[in-house]
Amino acid sequence: MKHYDITIIGAGPAGATLARQLQENYKVLLVDKRPLDKEPGRLIKNCGGLIAPDAQKALAVFGLSIPKEVLVSPQMFSVETLDFDNDMTRTYQRHYINVDRERYDRWLVSLCGSHIEKAFNTRFRGAVKKKGYYEVTLLSKANKSVVTTDIIIGADGANSKVKKELLPKQFHEPKRYISIQEWFPNTIHLNQYVAMFDEEISDFYSWIIPEENGIIFGSAIPEGKDATTYHNLQKEKLKKYGYHLTNPTKKEGCLLLRPMSSKDIYLGEGNIALIGEAAGFISPTSAEGISYAMLSGNILAQSILKSKENFLALYIENTKSLKKNIDKKMLKYPAMYHRTLRKWIFKLGIGSMHIEQNRQTNTYVKNKVTPFMVEYSL
Ligand SMILES: Cc1cc2nc3c(=O)[nH]c(=O)nc-3n(C[C@H](O)[C@H](O)[C@H](O)COP(=O)(O)OP(=O)(O)OC[C@H]3O[C@@H](n4cnc5c(N)ncnc54)[C@H](O)[C@@H]3O)c2cc1C
Description:
The protein has helices at about 15-20, 55-60, 100-110, 160-165, 225-235, 290-305, 310-320, 320-335, 340-350, 360-365; strands at about 5-10, 30, 50, 75-85, 90-100, 115-120, 120-130, 135-140, 145-155, 175-185, 195, 205-210, 215-220, 250-260, 270, 270-275. It is of the alpha/beta class. Strands 1, 2, 6, 7, 8, 9, 15 and 16 form an 8-stranded mixed beta sheet that branches. An 8-stranded mixed beta sheet has the order 3-5-4-11-12-13-10-14. A hairpin with a 4-residue loop joins strand 7 and strand 8. The chain is globular and about 65 Å long. It binds flavin-adenine dinucleotide.
């Protein structure tokens, strides 16, 4: 049986960052169910692929710049916000980097040196605690294998099996949403990011992101509501704003977490730690999770490098600022999600930008209708 110091389950932005930052001091196994070393198969990460300013800053801290093969067009400079509750729209300046998420993850994995052993196309099935170590069961195609390890890291995302199987149930849990994304041909030639708030659909939000020749329409529906029905209803209601989304080419659904306070973050116990969305690290206002994943992965790596024996206590201490950041985001929450407050912010135009009537989009978004699409100039 092969033995590892650290076994990381999940090679998304959190797991890949942790693996990259652990230097050659440890014997590390990086496991992922996706075939990240081969052509992408059916299993790909369901994501909008927007690298927000916080994630851009994290990349800068690591001295990384995104290679052009990972980028997709268009690169966007604004977000149009549709407020269905108050029948208003506003545009805000934002700068996201638009990437192909699968290629982004593969790029991060490619930065992990050869000293990191990789087991891709391989699922984590469970682990049993022995005296001073764990026996981890992995499944690759039909082949079961068992390895032993001192430390297990759950970097396996929202639906973390490491958390479910190995860690006691927590009192505080992030809110759970079913997120559906549907891909359409970009017949409306959209070239900006669109976010929509609609209490009838969700207490979170829905979005449209242009990506290469297509557009992605996504929604986050609270668990317990019929996600497909409300996703379709939002799509139907979008027609009023000129967005007619027809002939979908692909549809994906997955779990999305939303911590409502830093108390919902759970970092692990004993020799098991959680990073990224598995720990509950994701923005409660925008669902931006890539920066939190990379930053928590890095903090854990630094903690392990300092002390393999005492790493969890260090990790808990050093993630305090990241947890504080979640609470700070919650201060913004009413301005975004309280319909009356949002109405006043829209009315006053706080933070929004003036859009020229003869902007490029006007020529191709033919179906957009008045009066809601009349931009409010400051
Ligand atoms: C629809 C949607 C759109 C989003 N859009 C954005 C966006 O535009 N920008 C942004 O910043 N954030 C976005 N997010 C959030 C972001 O995708 C996540 O927060 C982020 O990917 C978390 O990174 P992670 O490494 O913690 O987990 P993940 O990226 O989820 O990676 C987990 C990895 O674990 C692997 N895995 C899971 N279970 C097992 C198992 N049993 N065995 C082996 N491997 C396993 C998976 O294959 C995956 O590679 C979006 C989320 C959703 C749901």
